[in-house]
Write a structure and sequence with these properties.
The chain has 319 residues and is mainly alpha-helical. It is built from five helices and five strands. The chain has a domain of 174 residues. The strands form two sheets. The chain has a three-stranded antiparallel sheet, with helices on one face. The protein has a two-stranded antiparallel sheet with strand order 4-5. Helix 3 packs antiparallel against helix 5.
């Protein structure tokens, strides 16, 4: 066809069949949607100047997968080397649970007051053997009779200091042992009653021990002081110089010094025992969960297997 051919004589393009879009015309979607690009022909060759598609980097990770950091566990993942938690969330061991004290039984206050009175009376009576022991171990002080009375045979005797020291040691030990005894013997009424009664009983025991110990041999000392000629040497019974009883405004007596050591040792020891008690009420209670200290019998031991017969033993007779 020459260039001089007119447009009317040129052949017109054949219209596409009905129902199929033209191969080079973009397909359209629903109303208002952008047209879809035309699909390339199956055997179409790429353009000569088109750049080849870029190949993915060999070490590149997909964008949707996070790159793990060496030595760091991913977020939300469990640590395989972590020790298992023995107590799950919200669970605590039984020995850490704050258990409420059981209700006080009827008549509990009367029993506690009665226990305090018993502790006071028993400890006060035990002050008598304490005084006898103190008078036995404490040394007597040597003195000499003069016209003005009795004077120390030595300028600075050590016996009065030793008497104070022995009373302090014996009184403190007495208070500690008394507290342990009250804690064990009055276990059903542990609390303020035995503590107050025992503390008062410790003070009463100290007064009884002091007065009893100092009076042992005091009559002999008074007799020699009154009738012995000057220059006579004898001994004075043990007495306290670091403790005693004074009067508050001449009306109210109050003890002081090492007379307070038995009561002090008892109160401190009893308080420490109460502080380390495993029961809120200080009284023995059943263990939680039905635990018991009674040993439980295990399964019976298996019976021993019979020994095989010897080489010369006869086998069982046929039935």
């Amino acid at each position: 066809m020459s260039p001089e051919t007119s447009d009317s004589e040129r052949p017109q393009p054949r219209p596409a069949p009905t129902g199929h879009p033209a191969p080079d015309a973009p397909t359209t979607g629903p109303a208002g949607a952008p047209p879809h690009p035309a699909e390339p022909a199956p055997n179409a060759a790429p353009a000569p100047n088109a750049a080849p598609p870029a190949a993915p980097a060999p070490d590149a990770a997909p964008a949707s997968i996070a790159t793990p950091t060496p030595g760091v566990a991913p977020a939300g993942a469990a640590d395989p080397f972590a020790a298992p938690d023995p107590y799950p969330a919200g669970a605590v061991p039984w020995w850490w649970e704050q258990r409420a004290a059981p209700p006080e039984p009827p008549g509990g206050r009367r029993r506690a007051a009665r226990a305090g009175l018993v502790a006071f009376g028993a400890l006060t009576v035990l002050g008598a053997p304490l005084g006898l022991l103190w008078a036995t171990v404490a040394p007597a002080t040597p003195v000499v009779k003069t016209a003005q009375g009795a004077v120390y045979a030595q300028p600075q005797p050590e016996q009065p200091v030793a008497a104070d020291g022995w009373f302090s040691l014996l009184g403190l030990g007495f208070g500690i042992l008394a507290a342990v005894a009250l804690w064990l013997l009055l276990r059903r009424t542990r609390g303020p009653g035995p503590l107050v009664g025992g503390t008062a009983g410790g003070l009463g025991a100290a007064l009884v021990a002091w007065q009893l110990g100092r009076r042992l041999g005091l009559s002999t000392y008074d007799r020699l002081l009154a009738s012995a000629p000057p220059g006579t040497a004898f001994t004075k019974p043990a007495d306290l110089r670091a403790g005693g009883i004074d009067w508050f405004h001449g009306v109210l007596p109050y003890p002081h010094g090492n007379l307070l050591l038995p009561a002090f040792g008892l109160a401190v020891t009893y308080t420490l025992l109460a502080g380390w008690s495993r029961w809120p009420s200080l009284r023995p209670e059943p263990e939680p969960g039905g635990l018991s200290s009674v040993p439980v019998a295990g399964p019976p031991a298996p019976t021993a297997a019979p020994e095989p017969p010897g080489p010369g033993a006869a086998g069982p007779s046929p039935g």
